[in-house]
Amino acid sequence: MKKNKKMWRCIRFIEGALLIFSVCIFAIADIKLLQYCQNMREPIVLSKTMDLQPCIEYTNFSKHKNKIATEIRVSQFNYLHRHCFEERSNVVDIDIPDWFKYQLGKLIYAEGGNLNDEAQQYIGYVVLNRMRSKYFCNTFDGVLKQGYHPITIKKVNDDNVVPTEQCLNNAFLCLFNYYHETIPVPANLVFQAEFKQGTVYKKIANEYFCLDDRPGYPDN
Questions:
Q1: Share of the chain above pLDDT 70, in %
Q2: Alpha carbon 115 to its chain's center
Q3: I want to staple 163 with a disulfide (CB 3.0 to 4.6 A). Which of 39, 90, 105, 142 is the partner?
Q4: Which tens digits make up the pLDDT trace of 67-118?
């Protein structure tokens, strides 16, 4: 009988210990869950994103984009866009038109298909800056007809001309910054040619990227 009593006491002691252990485990789990939920409510701060870099290789841009995609949910990104970027035409959820990306990619291909990413992005920004300038047409077709060589115009309008993936990637990056109002070059960077026009801002290979010295631009 004494042995049975001792055995039952041991069993009850073990049961009590297991119960206390289980309660502690659940309490710790609840605390961790509460901390996680609180961290999810904290605002996300982007120190360096692809749209704040002047000109980068598209491979690096993809890494930034993939990192953001994994770290920020769509709803949080939309919140950042609404509150951290100046919206263009009151558009909240930006959808870059495929035709715009393709046509800009063709122009980049026609003007600098053999150049590096930095030069191709500058070519794209010149086009987009002209669309925003009071001295040029405010449409892509208007800018194209107003200031580009007939050979370039012919290539852009030729359905048989297919831009490279590099040109399309750089066109996308330019348009991403255009629609987010984060173009990383001066607004008066509107000249690109193999000769100087205005104030030279950048020279890559044989291409001069120059500033318009006339008044009326946000940066001057």
A1: 60
A2: 22
A3: 105
A4: 444 443 344 444 444 444 333 334 344 678 889 999 999 999 999 999 999 9
What is the rounded CA–CA span in Å between residue 64 and residue 46?
Answer: 11
Do 181 and 85 touch, CB atoms closer than 8 A? yes
Q: How far apart are the first and last CA of the chain?
A: 99
pLDDT of residue 169: 92
Q: Which has the closest alpha carbon to 213: 196, 197, 194, 195?
A: 197
CB 126 within 8 A of CB 108: no
Q: Give the span between the Cα atoms of 119 and 4, in whole angstroms.
A: 88
Interatomic CA distance for residues 85 and 81, integer angstroms: 5
* Overall pTM > 0.85: no
- Provide φ and ψ at 159, rounded to 5°: -65, -20
Task: Provide the CATH number for the domain formed by 44-220 in this structure.
Answer: 1.10.10.2520
